[in-house]
Specification:
The protein is an alpha+beta fold and 328 residues long. The chain contains 12 helices and 10 strands. The strands form 2 sheets. The chain has an 8-stranded antiparallel beta sheet with strand order 2-3-4-5-1-8-10-9. A two-stranded antiparallel sheet has the order 6-7. A hairpin with a 3-residue loop joins strand 6 and strand 7.
């Protein structure tokens, strides 16, 4: 198994772009015609490069919106926007949000530690958008954004990582402090204000002012490589310290997930974190991609989408257990 993939679940590249002369979204209301033109231009560019579909938030039902947020394809902030929209590529690696915090939020998510492909894929679209739209750019400040911390390259890089060994060994505080010193932040899987579940964390760069895209990418690549090394080294420490105890915790988690009749989301994520560790360390013979996909597929709105109806909490817990047993 790819050692990087044992730790990095996915890599995301995001660009923030705005239209020159147009007020930022939080200042622009009641101008549906302007948004329609913006959405059409973005959709036209996207469809030149990707097969996919455009969704206006006003036309999307609550369940669809929540499921897209659970898959990290849109933000919860976009759901609140009357004139919001999103283009989704068919393979769901590319999503372009319209009228979130900025006029355009381009993002590409690739499985594993695949920064270069994610960046190249998004850059092609960004260059095409620049030929069709008057993007707000200042030769001294760089790309102009609604939030000052995004000025400059207006690029946010993030990696979804699984850090069970560092968490179990209580070494996360040191890692968090070290990342903050070099301009990175670490949060729960669903961003600011969320707690890590199943040992999953999101690491991303902060301010990009005064830094080039290449500089940001290089620092990000080296930083994530160091996080990967720290986690893999700590797994070996745990193995040497008490392999039977570690294996027992992993296999107990596996036993519950493969035999339970109902399970809550929080308990499931905790157990899944141990199972993923077991797969990575060779104790469980399963495909790690299938394990990672379960983390999203078992979210509340996703379960309702599979069932094609609204499920209560008890029904979701039963549906989650059934899906887990069927999948793994």
């Amino acid at each position: 198994m790819d050692k990087n993939k044992e730790v990095v679940i996915s890599t995301r590249v995001r660009f923030a772009r705005n239209i020159n002369g147009l007020p930022f979204p939080h200042k622009l209301t009641g101008q549906e015609e302007i948004y329609s033109v913006l959405m059409k231009n973005v959709n036209d560019c996207c469809t030149q490069l990707f097969s996919g579909k455009f969704i206006k938030m006003a036309d999307a039902d609550r369940l669809l919106e929540q499921s897209l947020a659970e898959k990290h394809l849109i933000s919860t902030e976009l759901i609140k926007k009357q004139y919001g929209g999103v283009f989704l590529s068919s393979d769901e690696t590319v999503s372009i949000m319209i009228n979130e915090e900025d006029h355009i939020r381009e993002q590409c998510i690739m499985p594993g530690f695949d920064l270069d492909n994610a960046y190249a894929k998004l850059l092609r679209l960004d260059k095409l958008l620049a030929t069709k739209l008057d993007i707000a750019y200042d030769k001294y400040l760089g790309y102009l954004t609604a939030c000052p911390t995004n000025l400059g390259a207006a690029m946010r890089l993030s990696a979804m990582v699984s850090l069970p060994a560092l968490t179990i060994s209580r070494k996360m505080n040191g890692l968090i402090g070290g990342l903050q010193q070099i301009g990175f932040t670490i949060r729960g899987a669903y961003g600011e204000g969320t707690d890590p579940e199943g040992f999953e964390y999101q690491i991303s760069n902060q301010a990009a002012v005064g830094k080039s895209e290449d500089t940001i990418k290089d620092l990000f690549r080296r930083s994530i490589a160091q996080v990967i090394k720290l986690e893999l080294d700590e797994r070996e420490v745990l193995r040497q310290k008490d392999e039977i105890g570690l294996q027992d915790q992993i296999m107990r988690s596996w036993g519950i997930l493969t035999n339970c009749c109902k399970i809550s989301s929080s308990e499931f994520m905790k157990l899944l974190g141990y199972v993923r560790l077991g797969v990575a360390m060779g104790y469980i013979d399963r495909d790690i991609d299938r394990i990672d996909n379960l983390a999203v597929a078992t979210q509340p709105a996703m379960l309702c989408m599979f069932a094609k109806k609204i499920l209560g909490a008890e029904e979701r817990d039963r549906a989650r257990a059934a899906l887990v047993k069927k999948t793994i």
